[in-house]
Amino acid sequence: MNDLKRVMVVEDSATQALHLKAILESLGYDVKVASNGRVALDMLHEDFCRIVITDWIMPEMDGIEFCKSLRSLDLPGYVYVLILTARDNLDDLVEGLEAGADDYLTKPVNPAELAARLKTAKRILELESSLRQRNEEIARMAVTDQLTGLYNRRYFNEQLPLVIKAAVRFQQPLSLIMMDIDHFKSVNDTYGHQAGDAVLQKFAEMVRSSLRAGVDWAARFGGEEFAVVMTNTALKGAEVAAERLRLLVAHSLIPIPSGDKLRITASFGVASVTPGSPDEPTMEKLVAAADEALYRAKRRGRNRVVA
Ligand code: GH3
Ligand code: MG
Ligand code: MG
Ligand code: MG
Ligand code: MG
After folding, report:
1. Rounded CA gap, 13 and 55, in Å?
2. I need a labelling partner for 3 at 20 to 30 A (CA). Which of 21, 64, 152, 216 fits?
3. Which of 188, 194, 256, 298 to mutate to test the pocket of ligand 1 (most atoms within 8 A of CB)?
4. Closest Cα to residue 53, out of 89, 16, 90?
5. 12 Cα–ligand 2 center, Å
6. How close is the Cα of 47 to the center of ligand 2, in Å?
7. With 70 as the cut, is the pLDDT of residue 39 above it?
8. Torsion of the alpha carbons at 285, 224, 199 and 245, rounded to the nearest 10
9. Looking at the keywords, is Phosphoprotein present (predicted)?
């Protein structure tokens, strides 16, 4: 990770900054210099840097204020801060660490010690990166349906109320399509569960391909039932989208592990939130309305869209 080869030096004395820069460059680091804490904060926003060595006493914003401000910011990653100062009593060290510094060094700096301290920084930052990545992965897994890669029911339940709230606030329409594969049980019964899974995956792919990026999103609601949420879309538009998807599904041949190709159909129920309607919309009401429409689509013979 080459961002661990970059160091920002925050130092008001140009001579000392140059001296430290030379040492760091001899250790293989790319160095940027900021003349005080305020300048350093601005630079971090523009060009993020994960290792910072800061002086204590500087005009405008000193090292302590800099550490405190830095820790209150929401930056793209953890910044490892070393204070490098002529102040060498124990109280100063404690104050520096309590302000949010990770390490404390006194001037004049010994290059070998600096190199070793920076190795510690690198180790901590690598650990932080891997934990961050793992967290992101877990967070993504928590909202993803494993079989299809679509959002799962949990995400649907968390997200839909927020989307409805936003639609009401911005007085925009919002539509929900609920869909259910027709006679899916017979796929499993005839061709086996693996074939059923392949059909679900292919169906999900067709749903995904029908979404408008950044506007619609789809979730696996459960079993062979899926939902598409269409923001800023009125009932008519959602009906058209559902009909297009219905045709795509009905005209597709789905390959299954046995080598056979299956034809499937699905039924669709569409419901909407309309701006200005007196009835306050909720997730429960919207889902119930789409479900009711889906039920009617099934009863009227399947392979159809009902709104
Ligand atoms: P309808 O047209 O009325 O919707 O009939 P259907 O057969 O599609 O509906 P039913 O609810 O009777 O059956 C749904 C089947 O979906 C039963 C269940 O075993 C199967 N199923 C649910 N989840 C999965 C899954 O993850 N993989 C597979 N292969 N099958 C699943
Ligand atoms: Mg100074
Ligand atoms: Mg079904
Ligand atoms: Mg059913
Ligand atoms: Mg079902």
Report:
1. 9
2. 64
3. 188
4. 16
5. 5
6. 23
7. yes
8. -20
9. yes
Name 94's Cβ contacts closer than 8 Å, sequence gap at least 6: none
**Pocket, ligand 1, Cβ cutoff 6 A:** 147, 180-185, 188, 193, 196-197, 200, 223-224, 298, 302
Contacts of 257 by beta carbon, 8 Å cutoff, 6+ apart: 194, 195, 198
Q: CB-side exposure of 220: number of CA atoms within 13 Å?
A: 21
* DSSP-derived 3-state class of residue 297: helix
Q: Report residue 213 as tokens.
A: 């990026």
Please tell me what DSSP assigns to residue 144: B
Question: Hey, what are 146's tokens?
Answer: 């494993």
Query: What would the pLDDT profile of 158-182 be if each residue is shown by its tens digit?
Result: 999 999 999 999 999 999 999 999 9
Rg of the chain, C-alpha, whole Å: 29
